[in-house]
Specification:
About 50% of the residues lie in helices and about 15% in strands. It has about 700 residues and is of the alpha+beta class. The protein folds into 3 domains: about 220 residues, 2-Layer Sandwich (Endonuclease, Chain A), CATH 3.30.870; about 220 residues, Endonuclease, Chain A (2-Layer Sandwich); about 220 residues, no CATH class. The strands form 2 sheets. The chain has a 17-stranded mixed sheet that branches. Strands 7-15 form a two-stranded parallel sheet. A hairpin with a 2-residue loop joins strand 13 and strand 14.
Length: about 700
């Protein structure tokens, strides 16, 4: 047994049917058919998703009466199926990928679609990590998992023609042949993947989704099962976070699979940079002199970023094999398509591993360091138990090899029978201008070590390490954890306060003007009511509340100023809360989407400290949190108590030193700044103490 729960897989579940879909045309067509059969719930989870994707099969056309465009297709489907709810969860990508992604996806996938199409950008990851799983689940009955996202520049047919009219991006620009693989399963294996994506949605969107019983049979009619009644292992990678331990099942399964190999390993991977995997391969090949390995990968990097982050690691990977004297038993190959005097290499984006006739692996994880411990990944592993299943795994491997060599799978099988060698077949079989060619890696690629270090790490990068990578060695500092973050926020506030004096913000919130107007009000009989009204109106207009508090304290003195500021700030919070109730959760979700749940969770879980930090920030979050709390129907009593607890430490500190704080705004001298920082540290200490007390009281069960 290779698959072992709690070691190299999360779960092992039975699939009554399973199939391997080779290339985007077959996968997109199968997904389209499955979605047309959907009745209740759909989850689409991925690294990328583009509303402009042409969701069509290998014919390149749609003949089912729905639009080819993904978002138009999904919108029409949701309107036709009033009970269908669709969840779209996509990585909130790094700015480095901005030119490769759709501009303003929230507009096209959230604002322009029906309410029952739920869209969320997943940013619940450590710095540098990406959400890399590619999963589609339909009615909890079937699930697709592999290396393909429903995005542009992915569609192609198995023929990988040099000229293909359907292989163009939304701008009409052609792109090269593209190879990728996705698996589809049903039964308990699909149900397990449904559980996985629900958990991911819960973390990314902070929203629980109802569990349904699998219903109907959305299996795509055009897909013939390759495997039946087979055990499926689900291997994951999750990076360590403050709340969760890391999961490295993907890595463990790679190593355990190599340890079981006897004669042949076939791999497809977009990257191969994991030197520890190469070392494990060397160890096993020394134990098994007959073992040979074929790795199909891209010819080289397809962008400057790939060259900087991955190329040096791939050179080191090959060097490990060469220094062990195993170069003749390992082949690194790329697929090439030739027509007349023209030739082009096929982009390899798949993540495949076939070990003898025992194990087939399809997923999102590359042979890269970041796939082992940094990005979220999900692979499916099919372990053969019967002669029929073993034969099916070999036929799938033959189809994969045939895809690159332009030949029928039967010709691949015949060549393997004749030569007895996977390497010889891969190197010699060619048809219709398709062949596999040796990858020629530059020995000393010119890369920036800093980019490689952050582009392909095995684990999340600590901020101190990140800074060291770019600015060199720094003196070691004590880790302050969350307290350091709060202090940093306070320092940012000082900068913002100074910016109000010397930036265009001064025209919107001039401190002298605010104080002068309050001074004029101070001597009038209705001063308390007027100050209260200013706070309420200011809250509705998203005026910097901290400025009002400081100006009130400086104008009316510490005691009266504290009373006016406290009453005004609380009144503003109540009014904007009620405004949120009137606006309603739905209207606010139309703007914020499921991210509204993040605000709710922050209020509910981190309570006092979260609210206190938000209250101190002199910009929109103060009003936004109030609106979100009202729209989300957080109990009024809980909200009011939390608001008072959160505001009081800051109000006390600001009111006690109101004149000094206001002096920072008008005359930012070193002495004034130091006094303010002392008050800030006192506020932090009180806030942390109150928060700890509240959490302790909450943890005591009645």
């Amino acid at each position: 047994m290779i698959l072992q729960p709690d070691r190299n897989v999360w779960r092992v579940e039975r699939a009554e049917r399973a199939a391997v879909l080779i290339d985007g045309g077959q996968y997109f067509g199968a997904v389209r058919e499955a979605l047309l059969n959907a009745r209740s719930t759909v989850f689409i989870v991925g690294w990328d998703l583009d509303s402009r994707t042409r969701l069509v099969g290998e014919s390149g056309k749609a003949d089912d009466g729905f639009a080819e465009n993904f978002v138009e297709f999904l919108t029409a489907l949701a309107k036709r199926r009033p009970k269908l709810v669709v969840h779209l969860l996509i990585w909130d990508y790094s700015i480095l990928y901005a030119l490769e992604r759709e501009l303003f996806p929230t507009v096209s996938l959230h604002w322009r679609t029906p309410r029952r199409i739920r869209y969320c950008l997943d940013d619940d990851l450590p710095a540098g990590a990406s959400h890399h799983q590619k999963i589609v689940v339909v009615d909890d009955s079937i699930a697709f998992c592999g290396g393909l996202d429903l995005t542009i520049r992915r569609w192609d047919t198995a023929k990988h023609r040099l000229d293909e009219s359907g292989r163009v991006d939304p701008a009409g620009a052609p792109y090269p042949p593209f190879h990728d693989v996705q698996a589809v399963v049903d039964g308990k294996a699909a149900l397990a993947l449904a559980e996985l994506v629900r958990a991911r949605w819960r973390r990314g969107a902070c929203e629980r989704t109802p569990r349904i019983r699998p219903q109907g049979d959305p299996w795509p009619p055009s897909v013939k099962p390759d495997l039946t009644g087979i055990d499926v292992g689900i291997a994951r990678t999750y990076p360590a976070t403050e709340e969760e331990k890391e999961v490295r099942e993907v890595e463990a399964l790679f190593f355990d699979s190599v340890d079981r190999a006897q004669r042949a390993i076939y791999i497809e991977s977009q990257y191969f940079t994991a030197a520890r995997f190469a070392a494990r391969l060397v160890e096993r090949m020394r134990e098994r002199p007959d073992l040979e390995v074929v790795i199909v990968a891209p010819k080289g990097p397809h962008s400057w970023l790939e060259a900087q982050t991955m190329q040096a690691g791939e050179v080191r990977f090959r060097r490990v094999l060469e220094e062990a004297g195993l170069r003749e038993r390992v082949r690194l190959l790329y697929p090439q398509v030739t027509d007349g005097g023209r030739s082009v290499d096929t982009v390899v984006h798949s993540k495949i591993m076939v070990v003898d006739d025992v194990l087939l692996r399809v997923g999102s994880a590359n042979l890269s360091n970041r796939s082992f411990g940094l990005d979220t990944e999900c692979d499916l592993a099919f372990e053969a138990k019967t002669p029929g299943q073993r034969g099916a795994i070999l036929r799938i491997r033959d189809r994969l090899l045939a895809d690159h060599c332009g030949a029928a799978a039967e010709k691949v099988a015949a060549s393997l029978a004749r030569t007895g060698s996977l390497m010889k077949t891969a190197q010699t079989l060619t048809s219709d201008g398709h062949s596999l060619q040796p990858i020629d890696l530059r020995e000393d690629p010119q890369v920036l070590p800093s980019l490689e270090g952050i582009g392909d790490p095995e684990r999340p990068i600590a901020p101190s390490v990140f800074l060291k990578t770019f600015v060199g060695e720094r003196p070691q500092a004590r880790r302050l954890g969350r307290l350091a973050k709060v202090i940093a926020i306070g320092l940012i506030i000082v900068v913002l306060m100074l910016a109000w004096r010397f930036s265009p913000l001064a025209t919107l919130a001039d401190p002298d003007t605010v104080r002068d107007r309050l001074a004029e009000i101070a001597d009038t009989p209705g001063a308390p009511a007027i100050v209260l009204a200013i706070f309420v109106i200011g809250g509705l207009l998203v005026f910097p509340v901290t400025l009002l508090i400081a100006a009130t304290a400086a104008t009316f003195g510490p005691w009266l100023g504290f009373a006016y500021a406290a009453a005004g700030a609380i009144a503003s919070a109540i009014v904007t809360y009620e405004a949120g109730v009137v606006v309603g959760r739905r209207a606010l979700e139309d703007v914020l989407g499921p991210r509204l749940n993040r605000i709710r969770r922050s209020i509910a879980r981190r309570g006092v400290l979260a609210i206190a930090v938000v209250r101190l920030v002199p910009i929109a979050p103060y009003t936004l949190v109030n609106l979100a709390a009202g729209a989300s129907k957080i109990p009024r009593a809980d909200y009011l108590i939390g608001t008072i607890l959160g505001l009081m430490p800051g109000l006390i500190a600001i009111s006690a030193l109101g004149h000094q704080i206001f002096s920072i705004i008008t005359e930012p001298t070193l002495a004034n700044v130091i006094l303010f920082l002392l008050a800030l540290f006192a506020w932090i200490a009180v806030s942390l103490g109150v928060q700890a007390l509240v959490l302790r009281l909450r943890s005591i069960k009645p």
